[in-house]
Amino acid sequence: MARTPFIAGNWKMHKTVQEAEDYIQGLLPRVYSADGVDVAICVPFTALQAMVDSTRGSRVEVFAQNMHEADHGAFTGEVAAPMLTEIDVHGVVLGHSERRQYFNETDKALSYKVLAALDAGLKPILCVGETEEERERGDTERKLRHQVQEGLERLSSDQIAAVTVAYEPIWAIGTGKVATPEQAQDAIAFIRALINDKAPDGAPLSRILYGGSVSPDGAPELLALPDVDGALVGGASLEPESFARIVDAAVQVAAA
Ligand code: 13P
């Protein structure tokens, strides 16, 4: 079964509401005719409401970049799934390597977050990936196995199929150092095999993205790989023009 390509832009901690409004006015006309591709922007909490309002009726979905696993409670500074769905946010990025590295996000907490997101009707993107040292030591598959199996641990097969996984090798994030097509394909095929072990019916439907220094020039080759269903784009998603060129690359691949 064909999987719809998915291009998501992760703004990280960039853009005020005013900057976000300027951006979306530039993006919407550029992706208006991107038929056959799902597009999302993952924006800071403060810009969620404005971006939901400004993208209503368009093909662009709006995702948060994190959430807490509990519905409510004494967790100062956190945001819960019902707070996101109340304002019509579509999905949420979970376990980005920056959250794992700087905010001590654990696989165990993520297993609860993924479940809470699905229960609330949010589309989760679960991020996984190895460090440079892990790759050099030959530990890439061990790391991915651990992150994927723990992250999806609490889900039924049907729920697993609804999770998008983003393979983001940490050494490729923000470095300009893109995984080779072979590295990306091998890691993503491995992730698909892991999903297949847990959800044989779901694996062919699960979308797996590549992330890490994706650029408009490099996107066509990555997006054409058999197991790569799209991209999670950081730096190149911050300008409407470069992000739209990556969406275009996905349109071309989908049409080929
Ligand atoms: P860059 O595209 O800037 O390398 O960031 C990738 C990323 O972390 C997306 O979540």
What this model shows, in words?
By secondary structure, the protein is of the alpha/beta class. The chain has a single domain (41-255), classed as Alpha-Beta Barrel (TIM Barrel), CATH 3.20.20.70. Helices cover 45% and strands 14% of the residues. The protein contains eleven helices and eight strands. It has helices at 17-31, 45-55, 81-86, 97-103, 107-120, 132-136, 140-151, 157-161, 181-198, 219-223, 240-255; strands spanning 6-10, 38-42, 60-64, 91-94, 123-128, 164-167, 208-211, 230-233. It has an eight-stranded parallel barrel with strand order 1-2-3-4-5-6-7-8, surrounded by five helices. Helix 1 (17-31) runs parallel beside helix 2 (45-55) and helix 1 (17-31) packs parallel to helix 11. The chain is globular and about 45 Å long. The two termini are 16 Å apart.
